[in-house]
Design a protein that fits this description.
The strands form four sheets. The protein has a six-stranded mixed sheet with strand order 11-10-13-18-15-16, with no helix packed on it. It has six helices and 20 strands. The protein folds into three domains: 4-45, no CATH class; 57-198, Immunoglobulin-like (Sandwich); 207-331, Cupredoxins -  blue copper proteins (Immunoglobulin-like), CATH 2.60.40.420. It has helices at 4-10, 14-40, 64-67, 183-188, 235-238, 317-321, and strands spanning 75-79, 82-97, 103-109, 118-121, 125-132, 141-142, 160-167, 172-177, 192-198, 207-216, 226-229, 241-244, 249-255, 262-267, 272-276, 285-287, 289-293, 297-302, 308-313, 326-331. By secondary structure, it is an alpha+beta fold. The two termini are 29 Å apart.
């Protein structure tokens, strides 16, 4: 598997990459590597500023700083002339320490909230091996186009496994979540994540990152008391996100907040280009605030011309002040 980190660290040329892969994997493996190279060839020229990767406040066991740029491309296989991306997901129940005073029992995928950011290319065959160890019936429902058999609305009982298989289509920014009633409770407990389907031709080079907005109903009154980007309230206020001055940022943004009908997203001192649902290569508008209902998601692109720290948050101040707030730290390129 050739991900962004490995490409950046060893800076292989395309020819050398295919030579090494052909030696180690044979002609079929080289073909897979060629396709993977098409996905990451633009990413190798993007420098990412150094940032702490050990953020796990109060013993949470999750790392929002690492989540920013973690993309799970699955295990790549070749079957009957097609690329198969196999993902293994386990539903679990874990306690998450939201701050020094509040803990929350989550239902989650792979021990984290949000679940892993799954990524494929349009036309790939996606195979998700789903094991439920969460103590309740759960499932995985993917947004996108697929058959009824892969729709993920049937309960998967505790200690059982099922397989969802479908073609990755259309390209864009989608999501997955549990679809067992009451769906709002299962999602609000943490069973959601982002599913990115890249266009076959890829997108221009950018520093790519993921922000998922979520809420926490900590007293079971069907109202959120705390909110967060990527799982932990106020993490990115306490640990600003480093980005380089004048470098294009591509932000995959998902509103997964239950109980609140809408949430906005706003960045300070700048504007962003909006690619609605990510299903276009041409921006639909340019703005500094966008309104999103629950499950809406978009790609936002921007760059900062001046160094310094700049806030981002929903423009519902109560949501922002209850933990859904962060900062970009813009630094000159080295």
């Amino acid at each position: 598997m050739f991900d962004r980190k490995s490409i950046q660290s060893i800076q292989l040329t395309r020819r050398r990459l295919l030579q090494l892969t052909a030696i180690g994997m044979g002609v079929t493996g080289a073909a897979i590597a060629a396709q993977q190279w098409n996905r990451v060839r633009s990413q190798q020229v993007v420098q990412i500023p150094p940032f702490p990767t050990d953020i796990s406040a109060n013993g949470n066991g999750i790392n929002p700083m690492a989540m920013l740029r973690e993309f799970d491309y699955g295990t790549v296989k070749r079957e009957n002339g097609r690329t198969i991306r196999e993902f293994r997901i386990t539903a679990q129940t874990n306690e998450l320490q939201l701050n020094s005073a509040v803990s929350f029992v989550t239902w989650n995928y792979n021990g984290r909230v949000p679940g892993p950011t799954l990524r494929a290319t349009e036309g790939d065959r996606v195979r998700v091996v789903f094991l439920n160890q969460g103590g309740h019936a759960h499932s995985m429902h993917f947004h996108g186009i697929h058959s009824a058999e892969a729709d993920g609305i049937k309960p998967v009982h505790h200690s059982t496994t099922t397989i969802y298989e479908f073609d990755a289509q259309p390209f864009g920014v989608h999501l997955y979540h549990c679809h067992i009633a009451p769906v709002t409770r299962h999602i609000s407990k943490g069973l959601f994540g982002l599913f990115i389907v890249d266009p076959p031709q890829g997108r221009p080079p950018a520093d790519e990152m993921v922000l998922v907005m979520g809420g926490y109903d900590i007293n079971d009154d069907n109202r959120n008391e705390l909110y967060a980007f990527n799982g932990l309230p106020n993490c990115y206020m306490q640990h600003p996100i480093p980005i380089y001055q004048n470098q294009l940022v591509r932000l995959y943004l998902l509103n997964a907040i239950e109980f609140d009908p809408v949430a906005t997203f706003h960045i300070h001192a700048n504007f962003f280009r909006v690619y609605r649902t990510g299903m276009t290569l041409t921006p639909s508008e340019e703005t500094d605030v966008i309104t999103m209902g629950t499950a809406e998601r978009h790609i936002l692109e921007f760059s900062y011309p001046f160094p310094g720290e700049y806030m981002f948050h929903p423009h519902q101040d109560a949501i922002a002040e209850a933990g859904c707030m962060g900062q970009f730290q813009v630094i000159p390129p080295t």
